[in-house]
Design brief:
The protein is globular and about 45 Å long. About 5% of the residues have low confidence. β3 and β4 form a beta hairpin. It has a single domain, classed as Tgt2/MlaC (Nuclear Transport Factor 2, Chain: A, Roll), CATH 3.10.450. The chain contains 6 helices and 5 strands; from the N terminus they run αααααβββββα. The longest helix has about 35 residues. By secondary structure, it is of the alpha+beta class.
Length: about 210
């Protein structure tokens, strides 16, 4: 049960730092901890105010992820890191399929996690960084509904068009999302190859869809 809960929280809060995309702030000028704080508050308010996001229905969650979350997450880096060294040997089509199936897996788990959001609040911890840093970690706690949940984000600063800070990993209660999936994926790749991993993810997503 605890493992399942951790997985739900891990994936469910991927979006906490991403759902405030509609707020008129220039992301390239915003400090990473300020970004996380602003968007964390926005997402909690959004979830509390929109009952359709707490029903477990994946359709509105997918729409939400596509429009609000993905612009603030380096999902290719996240998927590549989860797949590990085999990513470099993957064809463009295999990489595309891996990202698609991994996204569905995360989004469906996220849809279930939304139902658990009630009266939580976000508390920020001091951040150690310099203006020259290209990668930082922002540490937070989610309070309410039991013991505080440690939630840390790793972000990278992206140059050029769409410049700003983007999430590529997160840590809940000492468990990093990418590393957790990398261990699972490595077992599949070693026994079945990349196509076997894609098939496993696809079958898991179809099974989860039948469960609702």
């Amino acid at each position: 049960m605890k493992r399942d809960f951790l997985r739900q929280v891990l994936v469910g809060f991927v979006a906490i730092a991403a759902l405030g995309a509609g707020v008129a702030v220039h992301a390239e000028d915003e400090a990473p901890d300020a970004l996380i704080k602003r968007l964390s508050v926005d997402v909690l308010d959004t979830i509390k105010g929109d009952k359709s996001l707490r029903t477990g229905d994946i359709a509105p969650v997918i729409a939400l992820v596509d429009s609000r979350i993905m612009p603030h997450v380096n999902f290719q880096r996240m998927t590549a890191s989860a797949v590990g060294p085999a990513w470099r040997q993957a064809s463009p089509e295999q990489q595309k399929r891996l990202q698609e199936e991994f996204k569905i897996l995360l989004v469906r788990t996220y849809a279930g996690a939304l139902a658990q959001v009630k009266d939580q609040t976000v508390s920020m911890k001091p951040m150690r960084s310099t203006p020259e840093d290209k990668e930082v970690m922002v540490r937070t706690e989610i309070k309410g509904g039991g013991d505080p949940i440690q939630l840390d984000y790793r972000l990278e600063k992206t140059p050029g068009q769409g410049a700003g800070w983007r999430i590529y990993n997160l840590n809940v209660l000492g468990v990093w999302l990418v590393e957790t999936y990398r261990s699972q994926f490595a077992q599949e790749i070693n026994s079945k190859g990349l196509d076997g991993l894609i098939t496993t993810l696809s079958e898991r997503n179809k099974a989860n869809a039948k469960k609702g």
